[in-house]
Amino acid sequence: MPDHRRSGLITGLERSAPGAVSTDVDLAPLSRWKIGGRASVYVEPRSSAEAAAVMAVMSDRPEPLFVMGDASNVLLDSAGFDGVVVRIGRRMSRMAIVGRTVWAEAGIWVPRFARNVGCSGLDGIQHVIGIPGTLGGLVLMNGGSQRKGIGLNVSSVLCSDEQGRLFELDRAACEFSYRASSLQQRRAVILEATLALERGDASAIRREMIEIMRSRRARFPKRLPNCGSTFLSDPAMYATVGPPGKAIEDAGLKGVRRGNAQVSPMHANFIVNLGGASSDDVLWLIARLRHEVRVRTGYAMDCEVRHLSPDGLLRPAHEAAEERWPVRAEAADVA
Ligand SMILES: Cc1cc2nc3c(=O)[nH]c(=O)nc-3n(C[C@H](O)[C@H](O)[C@H](O)COP(=O)(O)OP(=O)(O)OC[C@H]3O[C@@H](n4cnc5c(N)ncnc54)[C@H](O)[C@@H]3O)c2cc1C
């Protein structure tokens, strides 16, 4: 981004979110995969009003924009991002519980949110306790576990559109489906969410959450940076071949490495960063896993994880991987 354009942009952003704007920020430490280059501009708003004001500034600007939570479901490119990252993070993590209604800002850390809700005796979202992202990212992805999604309990979502105008969507308008919602098409920023829950027994809920955490610790790699499940589970494939982790394992690819990225020896649908892996290492593995499983089973696995290119193109990571390696990734390159 040329300096003269950047300084105009920063002046505008500083006016809308004073003290919340930084430049040339290393994104790798902020991402769960610990992969990513530098962002030209980074803004971390403190309120919905500030976030909407930032969007209003950006609506007149040519620079690409990326809304980020905890980057626990996104592969940031090692070449960086020449645009503006708006992070809805811990500065926006207030919450309140009134009766069976829970309200929270979108930057709240999901495990903290789930613990507070469960410990107050409200039942229904224990399944999200181990998901290391923000509430905003969770709602956008309709994330969850045990075959559930957070959308089941969302009653409304407050968003900003690309012009900085606030609007509210009820659950029906969010069109939640498996790991998807209409919010993904709207290019809206999720600012706040309201959930409706049932009353339950706080100690039973607490025990259930502890059990979920115990089971996740036993099944999923925890020590090495990763982004959770790389590929989505497809019901047709699940019925005949099994989930992606099994298909990858059956193809003999568990433990395969490219550079410092590895298909986790613990769970083959996770790609772990052994230290210093690049986004290309991960994309190469994605291309290879997808290709080999397709050849063996006829099913093309799509990614849950999205890739952010340096110029702001956000898309499922398998699309970026196959564009980069259109022909079969060669086995000979594998360490
Ligand atoms: C170890 C591990 C385990 C995981 N387990 C699960 C699991 O069991 N179930 C599951 O569903 N997911 C799981 N995930 C994936 C991930 O944690 C969830 O999808 C999470 O909710 C994403 O939130 P985030 O804040 O990290 O979003 P990010 O990764 O930062 O962003 C994901 C997408 O959401 C968008 N986004 C983020 N915040 C906002 C916002 N406020 N407004 C608009 N758009 C926004 C981004 O632009 C991007 O497109 C796991 C991840 C890890 C690392």
From TrEMBL:
SUPFAM superfamilies, A to Z: FAD-binding/transporter-associated domain-like, Uridine diphospho-N-Acetylenolpyruvylglucosamine reductase, MurB, C-terminal domain
Domain FAD-binding PCMH-type: 35-200
Reactions that this protein is recorded to catalyse: UDP-N-acetyl-alpha-D-muramate + NADP(+) = UDP-N-acetyl-3-O-(1-carboxyvinyl)-alpha-D-glucosamine + NADPH + H(+)
Top enzyme class: oxidoreductase
Pathway(s) annotated for this protein in UniProt: Cell wall biogenesis; peptidoglycan biosynthesis
Domain of life: Bacteria
GO molecular function annotation: UDP-N-acetylmuramate dehydrogenase activity
Principal cellular location given in the protein's record: cytoplasm
Pfam families: FAD_binding_4, MurB_C
InterPro entries according to UniProt: FAD-bd_PCMH, FAD-bd_PCMH-like_sf, FAD-bd_PCMH_sub1, FAD-bd_PCMH_sub2, MurB, MurB_C, MurB_C_sf, Oxid_FAD_bind_N
E.C. no: 1.3.1.98
Xref: PANTHER family: UDP-N-ACETYLENOLPYRUVOYLGLUCOSAMINE REDUCTASE
Name the record gives this protein: UDP-N-acetylenolpyruvoylglucosamine reductase
Organism in which the protein naturally occurs: Luteimonas salinilitoris
Gene coding for it: murB
